[in-house]
Amino acid sequence: xxxxxxxxxxxxxxxxxxxxxxxxxxQASTFQQNDVTQPxxxxxxxxxxxxxxxxxxxxxxxxxxxxxxAFASGMAATSSVLxxxxxxxxxxxxxxxxxxxxxxxxxxxxxxxLEASFVNASDHENIRHNIKPxxxxxxxxxxxxxxxxxxxLRAAAAVVQEYGLSVIVDNTFMSPYFQRPLELGADxxxxxxxxxxxxxxxxxxxxxxxxxxxxxKRIYAAQNCFGAILGPQDSWLLLRGLKxxxxxxxxxxxxxxxxxHWLLAQTEVEEVFYPGLICHPGFEIHRQQADGPGAVxxxxxxxxxxxxxxxxxxxxxxxxxxxxxxxxxISYPRTxxxxxxxxxxxxHLGISDNLIRVSVGLEDCGDLINDFAQALNNKLKPxxxxxxxxxxxx
Length: 394
Hints:
With 394 residues, the protein is of the alpha/beta class. It has helices spanning 3-8, 50-63, 74-82, 99-106, 108-111, 124-129, 153-161, 175-178, 213-226, 232-243, 245-264, 283-289, 304-313, 343-349, 365-376, and strands spanning 67-71, 90-94, 115-119, 135-141, 166-170, 188-192, 206-210, 269-273, 296-301, 318-319, 329-331, 355-359.
């Protein structure tokens, strides 16, 4: 079956007990044990729940992996994967990684003596140069957040696998519809399911897919021991969101592509970052490893004042953290997604004070363009201090 059919028909869509066309929300913490001498499929919902398992089975099928796992948030998923490593282990991490991932690695896991080196993973020789005797894995994100930088996942995986290392990929921006990292050499895929998989800005969750039984065993142990599981209600919402993933992303991607080209022509815009543009430096690599450029883009205005004025003038889009909802969401990485990253590191990566990230929703694209046009050419007095605008520390 093609992907659209697998979203609806993957073996986890019908309740085996009643025949219901929607998996029920099994709002139960514990399960009757009919024979205490024999293990049953379910005993306690931290260890396994039928609604959560339907979601976990579904994401494993869509990503082409051995087993899926559902967590309470994208950061719970990331942190649980990181917890499978031991004190003294070393990880390579692409330098332009999500700010929350940067924060948890450099604060929480640093206290547990998990070493990390942030590297330019687009340079494969740079990856090789930074491998140490205690390096265990590489953590990649492509396209990256928020500058949509592209890493050749096949090539990066080939380099580290020469040394017996594992490959972890955050696939949040693409979802399994547009990109399946396990097919490109990854061992573990992570999603903030809050984003495109949920798709409606009404649920927080994280998903992980392991490629083989050994990694599945390690991640399940972390999930069961640490207990950062996704509840049945939220699991059901993600199952529902997945069913419309393709139709939502097809529409959103089409609008994002049109919006990116429109932004290129605006005098108030200095640069546009979108892997669907031929001028994007990672265009060809992304085209070879993904089935579409997605629905997220970023752009830099001519100066910070223009960016802040735009954020205060846009009407049709929400100015908020997160992405992937049915509504267009605009964020200011400087004080939102990457607020936890040191300023020197942000500027090194190009996350400047005039950078804006856009997650395109399901609105009419013409209406979005009209709104962006008035916001870019607004006559409002721009805010003069970052202290007065959207200073989210997430």
